[in-house]
Design brief:
Number of helices: 12
CATH topology of the largest domain: TIM Barrel
CATH superfamily of the largest domain: NADP-dependent oxidoreductase domain
Shape: globular
Order of helices and strands: EEEHEHHEHEHEHEHEHHHEHH
Structural class: alpha/beta
Helix content: 25-40%
CATH class of the largest domain: Alpha Beta
Largest sheet: 8 strands, parallel
Strand content: 5-15%
Radius of gyration: 19 Å
CATH architecture of the largest domain: Alpha-Beta Barrel
Low-confidence stretches: none
Mean pLDDT: 96
Amino acid sequence: MQEVELGRTGIRVSRLVLGCGNFGGIGSAPAFFGLGETREQAFALMDAAWEAGITTFDTADAYGGGRSEEAIGAWLRARGPAVRDRVVLSTKTFNPMREGADHGLAPARVRRQVESSLRRLGVERVALFLTHEWDPDVPIAETAGVLDELVAEGKIGAYGLSNVDGAQLREALAAGSFGWVQNSYSLLDREPEREVLPLCAEHGLGFTPFGPLAGGWLAGRYRRGEPPPPGSRMTLRPEPYAHLDHPRVYDGLEALEARAAALGTTGAALAVAWLLAEPRVSAVIVGPRRPAQLEPALAALRLELSAAQRDELAALFPSCGLS
């Protein structure tokens, strides 16, 4: 699998990144801690990703209340130094580790959370570390200061930002050496094109989008006039995607499937290929629930879309573009 340098970090990542947000939970939501993939299922996903050439794994301290990092750490111990020394780990902090626990980016908390992440992962250093959200209560310069200390101490290799808008990104760039941004971006979520992607290009930052299939919408999981499948995002955490339940979105999804069929591929693969063909995208984070769901992302690597093809696909979802 192709690897690329992530912005100005000096660190190379695989073009597909394994998202581990469902290991032992459903993201950072305390209500779902203990659900999601079991340790055995997580091992199967990591094995499949590794065999496919995915060398970069993305997690967070609060995913599953620490269970995601613990699963990755156990897998690294089981697979030994030959794997552990080649995996590029990315983790984050902001969210509480349990209901009612503290959260945020205060320097003392960031340092504490980095130390606890290293223990759960069973490593002395993580290559990549992200602020998981913007903290309005802590000046970003203070957070950047402790992150610089952690880089100097060899505990993290580089640091970036997740879930930020243009104004926040500009403020952060004035305060610290943030190397890349990780935001939601897909055919159904074009917001980064407004300010964040142009700023990344201007400052030489990497960009690693998550949510390439918009919670399963671009994978064909939801059909016009049909109830969502049991266990899907629209049954567990529908709020981020409820606005997509609209006739114009279903029109676009049906047209996307038709375009994919004409190319001998799937709508999901075409949606990931659309991201990979964006020059400002460094790597795409994919979060399969089982090994077979890696296939569309791997198929996307074999598709080479032109700029005109990207524009044609984006035009299928006019309500999701920029006004």
